[in-house]
Known about the structure:
Blueprint: H1 5-16, H2 23-34, E1 39-43, E2 55-62, E3 70-77, H3 82-104
Amino acid sequence: MALTRRALLERIGAVGGPALHCDTDLMQFSGGLSSDYGLQVFVGAETAMQALSGSSVVGASYGPDETPIGALAVIGPMRMNYGKVMSVVDFTADTVSQLLAELGRGGNS
Length: 109
């Protein structure tokens, strides 16, 4: 079942608490991810967001030709399988980047 944007934000708010009820916090955080190209890991207070101080964020920017235009991330507990999560996030960002590059070339591989 697909979640609407509102339902997703409400679910994030339930997990992250009242400080994470608004998507502007997440957008501001993801802006930091997308400004640098590559995989990044933030643990606890390194996230610079009070609502995520007890969590970890594994994120990566994506974009065609290694030009970051966005970011994707996994928010999880501080104790998680970082190797696995980092692999999945990196693979997904690379795949999205390749798809965007193909679209930019007119979809011809």
